[in-house]
TrEMBL record:
Its EC number is 3.2.1.131. PANTHER family: ALPHA-GLUCURONIDASE A. Residues 1-21 form the signal peptide. InterPro entries: A-glucoronidase_C_sf (IPR037054), GH (IPR017853), Glyco_hydro_67_aGlcAse (IPR011395), Glyco_hydro_67_aGlcAse_N (IPR005154), Glyco_hydro_67_C (IPR011099), Glyco_hydro_67_cat (IPR011100), Hex-like_dom2 (IPR029018). It comes from Asticcacaulis biprosthecium C19. It comes from the Bacteria. Homodimer. This is Xylan alpha-1,2-glucuronidase.
Amino acid sequence: MLRRLLIAFCLLFCATTAAHADPLKGEDGYDLWLRYRPVEAAKISDYKTRSSVIVTAKSPTLDAAASELQRGLGGMLGATPPNSSTIADGAIVLVTPADNRGFAIPADLDREGFVIKSTTLDGHPVTVIAGGSDVGVLYGAFRYLKLIQTGQTTAGLDIQDAPKLDLRVLDHWDNLDGHVERGYAGTSLWDWWRLPDLVDTRYTDYARANASIGINGAVLNNVNAKADSLTEPYLKKAAAIAETLRPYGMKIYLSARFSAPMELGGLKTADPEDPAVAAWWQMKANEIYSIIPDFGGFLVKANSEGQPGPGDYKRTHAQGANMLAKALKPHGGIVMWRAFVYSEHDATDRAKQAYLEFQPSDGQFADNVLVQIKNGAIDFQPREPFHPLFGAMPKTQQMMEFQITKEYLGFATHLAYLAPMWEEALQADTFAKGKGSTVANVIDGTLDGHKLTGMAGVANIGDDRNWTGSDFDQANWYAFGRFAWNPESKSADIATDWARMTWSNDPKVVATIVPMMMGSREAVVHYMTPLGLAHLMDTGHHYGPGPWVSELGRPEWNPAYYHKADANGIGFDRTKTGSNALAQYHPAAAKPWLDPKKTDERFLLWFHHVPWDFKMKSGRPLWDELVVTYSQGVDEVSAMRKTWAGLEGQIDAARFDAVTANLTIQEREAQWWRDACLTYFQSISKRPLPAGLTLPGTTVEDYRKRVFPYAPGRG
Ligand code: BDP
């Protein structure tokens, strides 16, 4: 008993002294990039003079803007500026077209856009945050706070900005039982069981975080949808979430199961050309809008991986999408129809199937439909060339789908900042209308003059305290919002802002973290799928390597289908001598990939099957290059771990330790990836390792025997 008491006393005492000794202790990641910690003392009075009072009119959104400013300024400057209705020196004045207080709002200001201007109103020097609407003001308030969070001046401001895309949406692959498909951050945020009575306060913090980066929509349920989410009880639950998100400019959407008229309506068919089916959807849409007046619309995964769809009735995707679009149209709703399709009954290269199914329907989709296309033609791999559908359907509104959750890049454990991958996809040139027809310009509507534009990100958010399962995965949520706001953004700028807001404004810390983030995705490519390889992950859960898997029923579920390693060489021939997937690209886009000798080596094995002794740019034979690149990936992770270790004492202890633990796991798993893949490929290439590099001697059989029945995030 005495011993226990002593231990308890010691624990308490030690914890208290440690907290005193280490002022950085105690962050748990919950605050994301909205930490609002005190700024440098030297700057406080400067900022304060321009943020003394907040002058605003009343509306739930303007209230949210004002209270965010109070929270943020209070935290960073040590004193919370009061709300006031009268303009005074140093006030922040929030204005909208409905109540502009004499400030001339630019006539062309977008509804969601804002102006932040240092000016004079009623003879007082003030900062005006003007929005094209209330939500524009909210976005402006977050931008103002970001200036202080990132150590910039708030003097002489003249900023105008607006989102470049209309729909900036998170897709939650959340099931009604709380499991998140491909989720690595705990279970679903949405407590479907207790909603609508219990509305978790976290939903407000979720909405704040999204509004801070301009995300304006959330699809609440998994694309592999249950019809139940369209029943009245679940619509009422969704309505409670919608109500919480509304002041923050967010709409909710639902994934719709195409066969719902049969499952819920008792119809014998879900044929989109059957009038009874169309009538059922119209009735359902009317019901939804009676419960959720600003409902955004439907996301649909049809005729893909076992989901029902119009193809079940020999109808096209356009016929299916348009039928739903018609039901939503009177209410202002839209349809996001996914192009992620491939069939087990089709022996065609999987990378070609979506194009073959969708491209002929160009021009047939209704004006409230967007075709939602993954960045690459296979499936969110660490590196893929851009999807050939981009730019190939000029009469169709195309939106981007990125995966924020890291299904194929090491789950939440591996540090991989995805923004460089997204920037690579967005800046890829489709040549659809000549040089400079980038994917970014396809999706922002400028290339083909489309009105409705968008970007979706498969969310990495769950009920983990730090939201995303790891501190660095918050950066991917943040970066997604920034790219959805402006697809021309630069990943290094985003990383810099995020690091400053999330970790520290100390230039040394920023200069350490940003390069580490910028190289992290490439490191994953190196130790998982270098030189254009793809989909080597073990089957089902996609955790760890499984290049040897070749016996599953559906050919394209086997990693061996993708690497095609044999005694002669390795890689997927997508030229004329192979699947000719290259022909789906504009000839100018395809040209640099036609000849293996000229192909950018990062895509070599994606497009070509080349001999093991193929001479690489380094002068090394391909086999040696493969070994060297895998090894380099491991070295890069070791370097990240060491770099991070050097930040000890400059980062709060709890988050520092959490990142350290993840990097330790990542280093071990990178080594496993390298060793397992090279051991397997060596069993086929029969070549020695280049001098100085070794393998541990574990057999392919031993690697194959490792099974992970409890790996998270299963489909
Ligand atoms: C794959 C995932 C699967 C998803 C599918 C999709 O493995 O869980 O349902 O994509 O996007 O990447 O529909």
